[in-house]
Amino acid sequence: MEVAALLARLHHGAQRLDRMVANLLLHATSRDRALQHLMDNLVGNAVKFVPAGVEPRVVVSGTQAGGVVDVTVTDNGIGIPVGMREQVFQRFEQVPGTGLGGTGMGLSICRTIVQRHGGRITVGDGPDGVGTSFRVRLPAAG
């Protein structure tokens, strides 16, 4: 193997490890700006995980009633198979075959943020069985 190719692989591995450490630290300390990170991650995933040639479509909606805030992020992406819908919230887990990289920490961090705010996050199919719909339920502030 050429030295340049070996150095490129080492550099890529170091960058991936750096992202993983940053995600682990966020996972451990997700308090400040936590809800912003939650939405950034859910919308970012919705844009990232679409089939080739498909224009991403993301809808964020919300309601507040009875002391509970419901936020839903729905997309037209590749979706999450039924058998993996709980598993994707575990650390280092990803839907196989996406080929889009990442550390497998994003949805785990989302669940931690939601739980630390006294809420719950679930995932299901998007409209007409296409894509994904994340539902976040949180106690209303104040």
Brief description of this entry?
The chain has 142 residues and is an alpha+beta fold.
Radius of gyration: 17 Å
Main beta-sheet strand count, sense and barrel state:
4 strands, antiparallel
Helix-strand pattern, N to C?
Answer: HHEEHEE
**What would you give as the CATH superfamily?**
Histidine kinase-like ATPase, C-terminal domain
How much is the average pLDDT? 83
Strand line-up across the major sheet: 1-2-4-3
First CA to last CA: what distance?
Answer: 61 Å
Shape: globular
Q: If you had to describe this structure to a student in words, what would you say it looks like?
A:
With 142 residues, the protein is of the alpha+beta class. It has one domain: 2-Layer Sandwich (Heat Shock Protein 90), CATH 3.30.565. 37% of the residues lie in helices and 21% in strands. Strands 1-2-4-3 form a four-stranded antiparallel beta sheet.
Q: Which terms summarize this structure?
A:
142 residues; alpha+beta; Heat Shock Protein 90; four-stranded antiparallel β-sheet; 4 strands; 21% strand; globular
